[in-house]
Specification:
The chain contains four helices and no strands. It is an all-alpha fold. Helix 1 runs antiparallel to helix 2.
Amino acid sequence: GIKEHGRLKDDLNRLDSLNIEDPEFDKTVQRVWHDLKHHIKEEEATILPKLEQMATAQELAQLGQKFLQMKKIAPSRPHPMGPTGGGPGTKMANAGAAAVDAARDAIQGRP
């Protein structure tokens, strides 16, 4: 749930600042992988089937299009101090963070 998302976000931010040689790096990667697998399993087993039952094919297609649009402007790195409220301020902050992330990713050769 929400607590897991917070821990995952914190761990991803920590990974971004850790050197791969740091002894904490492997532990953090393992914890992220564990939490991510659990999160994906929960969504695939519980949340997505409920959504498929409740939504029409047209609504699912619209959600898919919105997802693809948001993916283009979403930050590619964790921002633990960024807003999470979901309002206009969050959208503006995420757009700015996404632009900075894209520049960092290009400089560092990250996909």
